[in-house]
Amino acid sequence: MSPEVNTLPNDCEKPITRTGWGLYHYFMIGMAAACAFSQATALISIPFAIPLAVCDISLSTNMITTVDVCYSFGMAIGGFFIVSASDITGRKCMVPLTLMMIFGSTFACGFAHGPVMILTCIFTLGCGIAANASCVKIHLAEILPPERRGSCLVFPDLFWTLGYIISATLSWLLTPSIIHHQNMDMRLTTWRLMFGLSGACSIMVACASALIQPSPRFLLFTKKYPEALDILKHMYAVNNSRHCETYSMHPEDLEGCIDDFSLNNEPEPGSCTEHIIATLKRIQRLTSQLIKKRFLCVTALLISTKMALFFEILAINIWLAKMLQYSGKSDCYFTAIDILHLEGSSNQCKFSLSKALYRDFFLIALNILIGQLLLFLLVDRIGRRITIIGGCIACGASSFALGYIHNIYLVQLTASSIFMMAYSLVDSALNIVVIEAYPTAFRGTAAGGTQLFARFASGFVKWFLQTPCQYSFIFIGALVLAAAALSYFLPELRGQAMVE
Length: 500
Fold this sequence. Notes:
Number of helices: 20
Largest sheet: 2 strands, antiparallel
Order of helices and strands: HHHHHHHHHHHHHHHEHHHHEH
Pfam family, one: MFS_1
Domain Major facilitator superfamily (MFS) profile: 28-495
CATH topology: Growth Hormone, Chain: A
Keywords: Membrane, Transmembrane, Transmembrane helix, Transport
Number of domains: 1
GO molecular function: transmembrane transporter activity
Organism: Ignelater luminosus
Helix content: 55-70%
Number of strands: 2
Strand content: under 5%
Mean pLDDT: 87
């Protein structure tokens, strides 16, 4: 039985649904998709560019692992504090800010001449990607009607995967040229170019994000009723091609719609120091809401389920591709480098460029798109909970199959494809549940807090990973099957108003 949740009263859902469905929603979905595409193009620079930097910068194998750990820790810390700050400042300003963080970190990394600079840039990149992904989806969810919310929140994930595949393809095409010119004094194609190009999309989308309007739910939460009404009128006029004054709601109809949980009673800080202290205290108060009786059960469930899927999709993709390279071998053994970079590292500046490895990588990557397409079609028809449970069971079964079948390539490829497809489906569906299950007052804090432990766990596993292939698959299989059992108790809000 799922934990009890209280959703927004019908009379308070009307102001948003009465704006209709039209061009404004398509624009916001398009902006969310563009942001997701930018996140993917920036992310893919890490597994391709970092190993190629070995010849130019003193990067040992341990240092390359540390780079990836910094990325996970950046996602954990940035994904928590920056997204929590969006519950204080609003989502609108955080979208261009985080996109600028992505652009700045990739651009600066292209000019790095030492490990410290690279570590700082990758940490910042993790902060920006995690925060942007949460802020954009929360902002989008807060204007969507209940009956379309699930599929519309999955749509940006499809563009994330397109960006991921396209940027990986371009990086793969650049890699041979970069290696060929590695020892030349004058060269146009380097790993630095990869970093520079990977952030270009972010700066363009950041400029376009200036057109985004503030979230009406957030304005209602802060009790700015006239401003919220103006936004709702604007949405109504754009969606219906009618004059905004024909929108039949008034400021008094909006009062009391969103519970502020007594979070708006603090005095305005004066100095910059007081503002920082007040922000940290506010984040502490927001976090404490997650463990109060009303939300404690769902918070524990989401943290536990997220912990079972602690690796990012990129790491899973490379992990499965590397596993297929060990097909038929009894000495399959994974280290951190094996599941973080396609080329691994080479202090002798020699790279394999295995065509079979890249082929398997792209074949498995296509299944990310298939999984998200399935979710797009099913999430508003059969609900979130059933898709998560089904996806976890498929993940577990295919993972156990990979753990015990070592020498039949076609079977391994099929099981890997099923695993990748189900993993991407579950990951996207869980993000929808996180957004729906918490109120506007601390929705951002919940999005960052429920993933905080999983991201830290991912970083520590990357740091210490050294295990036989069979054990890694059995371990992951057991985790996702446990997640399937926990998912039965998650709240189901298909076609219902979000929790307020």
